Amino acid sequence: MVSLLKRSLAIISILVIGYWLAQGLAGVPFGEDKMLVGHYYLQHVKEQTGAVNAVTAVVVNYRGLDTLGEVTVLFIASTGVAALLWRKKRERTAKVGGSPVLTVGTKFLVPFVMLFGAYIFIHGHLTPGGGFPGGATIATAFLLLYMAFTIYEIPHKAFEKVEGLAGMGYVLVGLIGLAIGGYFLFDWIWQDWQWGVDNIGRLFSGGFIPIIYTIIGIKVGTELSGIVDNMLKEEVRE
Amino acid sequence: MNVIGLIEYIIVALMVISAILAVEWRDLLAAAVGMAAVSLFASILFFMLQAPDVAMTEAAIGAALSGAIVIFAVKRTQRFETEEEEKPGWWVRW
Q1: Which residues of B touch A (CB under 8 A)?
Q2: For residue A145, is it within any domain?
Q3: A5 within domain boundaries
Q4: ipTM greater than 0.90, yes or no?
């Protein structure tokens, strides 16, 4: 009886919330051309940022501070995983290695997966993608290595240092912009030095977008590999 | 209806089916695979909706990394969901 009451109450509240949302969405003109900010970005993206890929220009250039926050969130998540799973001595405990298909496939594919990830974040201002997909792709290469070989471990010391240096590099690029142009994450390479103005659509253009996306790609790749490493290893008692 | 639209509907249907299976299966390893399948179909759909960057992110994070992390968590805990007393079907489980 009580559960029936509870259920009908839940149904009624869902219906009320659904009606309310539908009312709200009915006023939004879907499919009509009302996006003034989007139009502004699409019309001015080439002369203002030098990037061909407008999505990347918005993420790194116009909304660069938000991306810094996003990177920080990922950093905190990775630190949280490491802190929650922290033990004094942890090792890989897997006893069975990967099947021959997985092992041979990993040996073949890992360099190409890493190359593709690097391609995604280096060409972020030209082709779809950017630092986050590229970094995640590199992390899947390390995941493959972990699954195929029982003894494999990432070089922890180097990864931690690279991760910290990449995070500092992002802030440093922003601070150079503050020193040159007057505000944080100012695109000094494009706006001030005018590098790559006659080179739009090629690799060496787009201001600081390739630099920042390379930094983000390296940082995301090392962080996600660190999360995988933390999840896989187990505590060892003597 | 053209072929592309039909394929999109089929992918959406597959997404919904794998999501329901991921909730319903008692074997948590299979449920993790179902969860990864939702991400995989979503990634194909993103690609068909002309968002290749989102498709790449969804395939790498949703299908590969989060699926692997859930499987590692299953490995550390237990593989099968414990039985509960009250189990109505999925359509009335609040």
Answers
A1: 51-53, 56-57, 60-61, 64-65, 68-69, 72-73, 76, 92, 94
A2: yes
A3: no
A4: no
